[in-house]
Amino acid sequence: MTTVILVILAASVGVDGFASGRNWGFLLLDLAPIALIALPMTLIVVTGEIDLSVASILGLTSAVMGQLWVSNLPLELIVPLILLLGALLGAVNGLFVTRFALPSLAVTIGTLALYRGLAFVVLGDRAVADFPFSWTEAAISTIPGTPVPWVVVLVAVLAIGFGVLLHATPVGRALFAMGNNADAAAFSGISVGRTKFWLYVAAGVVSALAGVFWTLRYGSARADNGTGLELQVVAAVLLGGVSIFGGRGTLLGVLGGVLLLGTLRNALQLADVSADALTVVTGALLIVSVVGPNAVRMARQHLRRRSPALNPAKP
Amino acid sequence: MTTTNVEPPRQAGAVTPESRTRFTHRLFVARELSILIALAVLVTVTAVSNPRFLSAQSIRDILLGATILVVLAVGQTIIIITRNVDLSVGSLVGLVAFATGKLFLAAPDAPVVLAVAAGVALGAVCGAINGGLIAAARVPALVVTLGTLYVFRGVDFWWAQGQQINAADMPAGFLRLGTATVLGVPVLALVALAVLAAAGLYLRSYRSGRELYAIGSQPEAARLAGIGVGRRVFAAFVANGALAGLAGVLYAARFGTIDANAGTGLELQVIAAAVVGGVAIFGGSGTVWGAALGALLLTTISSSLAVLRINPFWQQAVVGALILAAIGLDRALAVRVAARLRERKARGN
């Protein structure tokens, strides 16, 4: 979290135009889909699983949304249908992972291809772009008097919801417990399967929500919307300090991770660093964030072993 | 992610080693047979609808198309067997392909052998970076290679600066490598076959090859049994990097036109090929033969869809469904094996 603040401060001082309200508005709009999907993803990774199909759910829901709009359905009806579709797609993931006990990495690589493929089946390489102005405008409108877009409120409400669930309820404790040891969690009366199933459903719904937002923000429903976004989400979650093995991590840290990735990229972009360097920075940041703590811990252990005086309990 | 979903058959105790080996061997054969049958059905259906699908030219095209995927799937299998994964191979292929183009721009007369050696060396170095971080810093492979996926691709972009290398920039002798045939079989396919045979033999018959399976089955037990887990995993990543480097050179030879986007998203296809071929994502089981068949099946599907006049947009969806079917089948087999082994144990055999 301190790193985020430092980066924001440094960028505000050092980079021209970074601190402008307009820039912040765009930055937050860009980050909203990643932040949204990162919320359920955090919970899933805490339980020791993963969901790589989220960006494909975003793409498929976007494509279906376009197709339904072309078929003259009103958006008031389309949006609930799309969220329902997201729940269904998530439930398929959850079913494979829990009911059939298959590794989530393999399952969601499968559904990553399947859902993206279905998106292309639905919409092909066409784009649906004639959404009503009132809706596309609403997606990017800001809270009056501030440069903050309304979608930030949506992210904040959901973040509080997921944060309370993870950190202040028995369900949240159970998530950490099964991340640390699924067998022990099962023996202590937690229904591991059912809980994980509902997490995948939640990820599906939120990804569909991100799909709706994405479609309206860019005013275009396309089958390839959000391709590759899953890796950015996972990168943000890991950067936020969630252990890939499960059992450790905080939602606030993940929001910090999302913000850190976003501000860093944005600031470097404004400072005319080429987009290529940004890719390197993203990757390097991810590696450093996991290698760093490990290296420090190993160095510390090494030192302790070399000075036995500090460790008299050792036989 | 967790080590808790390790399938029960690995803990099967009281079966005599000999019968168990024969039994598991039969199982593996059955698993690969199932892909072979799927492939045969696919080819038959397509050939019935359009006999030209079985023409020499069409078969050559499929083999050529499968080559790069097969080489990558072999490398990925070596990694997955040790219960790791390498997501950076797509970026690595792109980087090496571009480097190969650059090499020929700088030295148009460079011999083909030098280009291959340089590509393999560059790939091995990148693989060593992956392996070093994973083995030395004890960081999960998924995270490290997700990071290097971005880093390698970024370096590629930065180096290319929007430049595109065209077939005209490369010597004809090198490009011929992409289309040349020996006795009607494409040279590229022969390269893939050689890689496949070498890796298959190594994993099956060499001590260090078997140790890779031991590491993937149970890393802790492997460590206690005196296997240098870190060293072996490191070597596996170097080998995979070298194979990805080779694939990058082949990519350059086959397509001729290379920009910084070459090979994007290839990593998922490679993992898909391995998983469809029966390589368990949690390590410890699977063969390179299966993975190669998986790669061949994925390539054939896209050709078949075109011949059968099915909307090409279905291809990706079919691949996804196939992955789910393959891991479902593996699971069903594992459950049956566990039941059989329990039965034998109960009989005191």
How would you sum up this structure in a few lines?
The complex is a heterodimer of chains A (315) and B (349). Chain A has 315 residues and is an all-alpha fold.
Instruction: Detail the poorly predicted runs of chain A.
Output: 311-315
The CATH topology assignment of chain B is ABC transporter involved in vitamin B12 uptake, BtuC
CATH topology of the largest domain in chain A: ABC transporter involved in vitamin B12 uptake, BtuC
Portion in helices of chain B: over 70%
Helix and strand content put the structural class of chain A at mainly alpha
H/E element order of chain B: HHHHHHEEHHHHHHH
Beta-strand content of chain A: under 5%
How many structural domains does the protein architecture of chain A include? Answer: 2
What oligomeric state is this?
heterodimer
Largest interface: A-B, 58 and 50 residues
Query: What class, by secondary structure content of chain B?
Result: mainly alpha
Instruction: Give the strand order of the largest sheet of chain B, numbering strands 1, 2, ... along the chain.
Output: 1-2
Please estimate the helix content of chain A: over 70%
Given this structure, which CATH class of the largest domain in chain A is correct?
A: Mainly Alpha
What is the CATH domain class of chain B? Mainly Alpha
CATH architecture of chain B: Orthogonal Bundle
How much of the sequence of chain B is in beta strands? Answer: under 5%
**Largest sheet data of chain A:** 2 strands, antiparallel
Rg of chain A: 21 Å
Rg of chain B, Cα atoms, Å: 21 Å
